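Dear colleagues,

As part of the handover before I leave the project, I'm documenting each prediction I ran so the next person doesn't have to rerun anything. This entry is a single chain, and its sequence is reproduced below.
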Amino acid sequence: MSDDSTRRVLMGKVVGVFGVRGLLKIESYSSPRIQIFRYRPWLMGRDLVLSEVTPLDLREQGKGVVVQLPGCDSRELAEARLGEEIWVLRSSLSPAQAGEYYWVDLEGLQVITLEGQALGRISHMLATGANDVMVVDGDRQRLIPFTQGHTVHSVDLDAGSVTVDWDPEF
């Protein structure tokens, strides 16, 4: 895993424009969605070709969030940014509370059964509504619920592993 000074976290995406003064509608992946404004600077762009941006103003608008960026003061300039992703450095996120984990910190961890059998590595996480799910790539892909105290026995970020109570045949 790379260190927190270079690792990036996807926090949102430009999904529309608002008005004629260059405001952007964004889909925020933070919770609450307005929390995205707390993280600075943003790294914005497409296909991981990113430039550093410090948002000037952000507010909730209906069910979404709108933002004003420096130099983006017309509808045409805003439309040119449609589809851009918003990333922040992992180091800009506050430390997770005990027993809580950022998904980015789980990605890449080795998943091991209670019996010591390696199942693979977490490629990414999914939100299902009921609980989060680890997508584990190994000899085959497995979807394992991230339910602490039930399926997930322990998480050791220093060792780079998650121990699960899971039948390897499932």
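The mean pLDDT is 93. The chain has two domains: 8-91, 103-164.

All the best with the project,
I.
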